[in-house]
Request: fold
Amino acid sequence: MFSAKATSEQVMGALRFLEYMGRSPEMSDVAKQSIEDGMQVALRKGMPILPSIKPWINEDYVTYMENMEQMYCNVNMNYFKDFYALFDSMKRTEEPYYCQEMYKVLDGAIQTVLDPRGITVNVENLLTTINNDFQKNYMNNVN
Reply:
């Protein structure tokens, strides 16, 4: 989640910010208020609210989030039951080589394709170039 180059102070600052946003396992009054405020804003904006995939196992966090999601859920959960029922069995460990680098180049490709300036992109050529560069710069170095 954090850069290997991040200092302890930077990591702690980021963790405190996550708590402030209600996105950490710490369940302070500030975190709880942020979570509830976020749910209320989403509700006012007509955004779908459904159970989240919880990254933390802290019992206080899980219980609080489940209560908030139950209170604010505004979708028909029958449409999502298969996803939630199969979620744990779909989890996979990340591939051992260069996943974050791959995500970075794919993110760049998606941003290029969705560029709001209306730039026309040949997606097949873009992906071929990215694939060739990734193979040369990363995968050829494995083993």
